[in-house]
Amino acid sequence: MMRVLLAEDQSLVLGALAALLNMESDIEVVGRAGDGEAAWRELQRLKPDVLVTDIEMPGLTGLELAQRVQRHALPVKVVIVTTFARAGFLRRALDAGVAGYLLKDAPAEKLAEALRSVQRGGRAIDPQLAIEAWSEADPLSDRERQVLRLAGEGVAASEIAQRLNLTHGTVRNYLSEAIGKLGVSNRIEAYRLARQKGWL
């Protein structure tokens, strides 16, 4: 029996995924979490075989959750199920050791098949997205990404510096680097472009 933990911040989607997977005779949904930090706690408590997570969640994103799983070498396979058909997200997911990346508009039976494949040590990646993922590299460093995300959400440079334990000047430098790399004229355009490409 494959033990699965679901992490999804939309209650309706979470319930639908649980109902769908519980219909399979060889899959048991052992836990549900509505945000990344709750999912992290449940991962350690329940020790499931597979974590199925969305990308955009409060607290930790699905990608940050996958990175934390990788850093702590937890023996769980991570599968991302998302609406974001963006090559940048897939590249970052693969770098974080994710074993599956599926889109929410895929046929329902594909999810159970993908989980079985991942459980056996395989990968389950949307094929069209996989092709796109290697066509354009993400130019941002992790720090540039963190700073740009916060700036794009309207957080002032002084507060970004405080949150990330950086100096005000260092925050400005990271923003300037990100703007330069993306070939745009300001932080808002940089944020929009990076979001569109899946780099944030």
UniProtKB/TrEMBL annotation:
Sequence ranges assigned to domain Response regulatory in this UniProt record: 3-119
GO terms of molecular function: DNA binding
Modified residues (4-aspartylphosphate): 54
Protein name, per record: DNA-binding response regulator
Organism: Metallibacterium scheffleri
Entry-linked InterPro entries: CheY-like_superfamily, Sig_transdc_resp-reg_C-effctor, Sig_transdc_resp-reg_receiver, Tscrpt_reg_LuxR_C, WalR-like
Pfam family, one: GerE
Keywords recorded for this protein, A-Z: DNA-binding, Phosphoprotein
Domain HTH luxR-type, residue spans: 133-198
Keyword Phosphoprotein found: yes
Keyword set includes ATP-binding: no
GO biological process: phosphorelay signal transduction system; regulation of DNA-templated transcription
